[in-house]
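The records we work with from here on pair a chain with its fold. Each token is a code from a learned vocabulary of local backbone shapes. A record is reproduced here so that you can trace the correspondence yourselves:

_____
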Amino acid sequence: MVDQEFALEYPLAGRNEKPRSRGLTMVIDKGLGLAALADFLEVNWPFLDFIKFSFATSLLYPEKILREKIALIKSYGIIPYPGGTLFEIAVVQNKMEEYFKSLRELGFPALEISDGTINLPVQLREEAIKEARASGFMVLTEVGKKDQEESLSLAETGKILELDLLAGVDYIIIEGRESGKGIFIYDYEGSINLSLFTGILAIVEERQEKLIWEAPLKKQQVFLIKELGVNVNLGNIPPEEVMAVEALRRGLRGDTFKLSLKEAGF
């Protein structure tokens, strides 16, 4: 693709343009106001696909502002959804049906089903997925615990991945939290556990496009782009890093620009 303003080609080819089902970027919103959100979307809307209202922060907004945020995000063709912790709270309070109803009324087109903090029985996880799909939601699930001491084994991870895929989820998020350190596939320096990474890929095989890798740190983004290509799905990107991530995908930063140099004869 050639940029019309500068008449230059992007060094890395093949980046999917919108609308797309691969190469997704999910942003974590920890409390942007309406004005800040509007400014952010005006510049960055071509580069992102999901905005997650982090944790259970949806409960903290005045209803009018929450509705306006949801509507504004949707007006740019981007999918807003509440973080999985809100679902877990609903489960603990035995209010899952009421929760789904509230999301529909607010205008959320998607939701996240997770068990990062709670222990969610397999049967209830499957029921939640099916009920959410039947209610018309796009369904994202999350795999991985938020406490490293409770981290899942590859075998446990595989069982959940297969369950979710068979239940028909749209995407599965690989837990990385907002820090990207000391959590599930990442060690305390933010480096990826290669055996767990390759094990997950072996389990999903050709269904890799169903995975969204939470990767808030640049070195994680670079690794995943190098290993899985420019159209890897990335999540938990801070708003201020969206354009920087898009630059990585297109070879507009040194970390990935150098991947194109051999072909260019440099």
Remarks:
- The chain is about 40% helix and 15% strand.
